[in-house]
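Why should sequence recovery work at all? Because a backbone constrains its sequence more than one might expect. Tight turns favour small or flexible residues, buried strands favour hydrophobic ones, and helices have their own preferences. The token representation captures these environments compactly. In the example below, the structure is given first.
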């Protein structure tokens, strides 16, 4: 697990990244998938956790935050979900009563 402090414009974030070694590659447009990840991170509030793992032969990536999402005009959640669907994946949102959010991306692994 790695932790970073990030500064975007007037906002400061604490970012924690947990990755699983040996994850298979996913097939898709690198720029589009990076845009989705950036949009989810940029929407998050102050404390962000990014996690990756393999489940049922699919690559999972989640972005969790500590509170109310920020408004951003970079990319809407619907646009993010559409890009993930175009990559034969799924995006699910989980919210807690305290306002924390977790977006989980479920993507197929690259076929040989």
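From this structural description, the recovered sequence reads:
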């Amino acid at each position: 697990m790695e932790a970073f402090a990030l500064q975007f414009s007037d906002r400061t974030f604490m970012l924690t990244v947990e990755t699983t070694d040996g994850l298979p590659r996913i097939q898709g447009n690198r720029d589009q998938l990076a845009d989705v990840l950036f949009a989810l991170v940029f929407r998050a509030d102050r404390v962000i956790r990014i996690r990756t793992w393999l489940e049922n032969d699919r690559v999972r990536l989640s972005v969790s935050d500590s509170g109310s999402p920020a408004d951003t005009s970079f990319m809407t959640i619907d646009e993010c979900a559409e890009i993930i669907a175009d990559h034969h994946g799924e995006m699910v949102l989980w919210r807690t009563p305290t306002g924390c959010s977790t977006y989980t991306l479920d993507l197929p692994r690259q076929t040989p």
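A few observations help interpret the result. The beta strands are 2-8, 11-18, 47-55, 58-65, 90-95, 101-108.
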